[in-house]
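Problem 12. The chain below contains 64 residues. Write out its predicted structure in token notation.
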Amino acid sequence: YDSFGISSHPAFLIIICLGSQLIHWHDVFFQQIAYNGFYVIRYDKRDSGLSTKFEGLSSEEIMV
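Solution.
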């Protein structure tokens, strides 16, 4: 995950998934939201973008 802004400001959560990844969004977009008074948190769904990869495991094994 990445974050932008001051953590005491209201949170603005961005979940990057469904055909896109965190690395495909430009930082300037999130910096502008932070500049307008929000603490921006963005993260990838598991196994996409910069998130941790689990090679060779089924989704049932990961959930346990």
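Discussion. The beta strands are 2-4, 11-16, 39-44. Students who got a different answer should revisit the alignment rule from Section 12.3.
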